[in-house]
Fold:
Amino acid sequence: MADALTNAAEFTVSEIAQAVKRTVEDEFGHVRVRGEISGYRGQHSSGHAYFTLKDENASIDAVVWKGNFAKLTFKPQEGLEVIATGRLTTFPRSSKYQIVIDNIEPAGAGALMALLEERRKKLLAEGLFARERKRPLPYLPRVIGVITSPTGAVIRDILHRLADRFPSHVLVWPVRVQGETCAPEVVNAIEGFNALMPNGPIPRPDLLIVARGGGSIEDLWGFNEEAVVRAVAASGIPVISAVGHETDTTLIDYVSDMRAPTPTAAAEAAVPVRAELIGYVDDLGSRQRQAARRMAGSARDRLRAAAAGLPRPTDLVATQRQRLDHAASNLFTGLRHSVQDRRVAFSRVESKLTARVIRGQQQEVGERLRNLSLRADAGLRKTVDRARLTHDPRAERLAAAAGRLVERKRAQFEAIGPKLSTNALRAELRHSQSQLAPLTARLLGGIAQSLGERRAALSQSAKLLVSLSYKSVLARGYAVIKDADGNLVHERAGLMPGDMVAIEFADGDVSATIAGSPAIKKKPRPQLDRDSQESLF
Structure:
């Protein structure tokens, strides 16, 4: 028994492990394994991913190397049933076999739909799909931003439909519409359009269209990513989603302000029909003109009806004119009667007005006037004498008192004369100084303000001179080239081999000699037609 054991070949543990490894790899070189992902915690710090594939009866360890993980179009997720493609191998250190995965696919639409429904419920609970958050689309957007693939039929359909309905300014942000980079590129496009300034060199769109053609749920999965949904919800520009055909539904359709069944329908919803709009405006103008004519006609008819009920202007003044004519005819008759009455009255008193009677009345009146004059003169003299007797003693006493007052004031002024003069001069000086001080302060303030304004203007001019000077350009690394005559050299064609030039740098000048072949003028490069299809993208 001992001899039989000694005749058996001996293997080391490593040899056994390597033999098993070769056997497994040769027998199962390339396999597709279906199972549920378990134990996935994301990428390891090394960049590799480790998890387990299991079903109801068994499990197998799985590993995705760092290089392959970045290429996966569908990333592993805990609890998701997938189909993993790779090769079987062993891990000798722990005597386990495992699958090295090259690609992962969902194990059918059922798993993706379950994941999609779970994500939809989560975002719905956050209120991202609420109808109150949806904004009305602009009736006539000036600029429309389109986020789609620049090479597909979708962009051509949108541009063709916009040109038919209402030609508009369209900005295209090219993105991949499927694959691993689809979601990040769509998010960057939405955020990029929102970051544009309204009056910037690139106009900010008034409306965004996110579009792609139809496809499977795997092809449209980029538009179900949570990052894309949140980017649409945070957009300050209204968004129309036109992803897939009419039967395709993605999460972006729930959060967008409007869902279009096709990209062509999105273009139709974005702008009205120009011809219909022109017809509508013409119809409104025609209705307005007809309404104005009807209003003018109605006002004219009302005016005529009102005028018919009013009396004629001649009838209004007929009575007054008749009264005036009657009064005019009676005026001449009354004047004649008045003259006759006056003549009869004068004839009655004419016999009494003789020359003798008039002279007697004149003498009588003159005598009365002379008597009154004599009486007036006598009364005036009596009044003056009475007043003189009353006021003369008072005038004498007043003159004496005035003389004494003058003498007393003169004595007082003579006693304090010198002192009064000095004090008055000082008071006058203080008064003049008090008036001069505000004027001096205002003058000094005005001079200081004027100097400050001149100093600020000079400083601003100095800054402008420095900013416009070519010296600041030289300080950034540029140079100025002059020929032997000191003229600036603007282009290469102005130099020939052997010419002496002076090169001016920021810190000084150097001399140089031109070497090499003469400058050859290049033919101008033909420019592409800006209206061609290539210039759009």
Summary: The first strand starts at residue 31 and ends at 38. The two ends are 84 Å apart (CA to CA). Residues 475-509 form one domain. The CA atoms of residues 149 and 191 lie 17 Å apart.
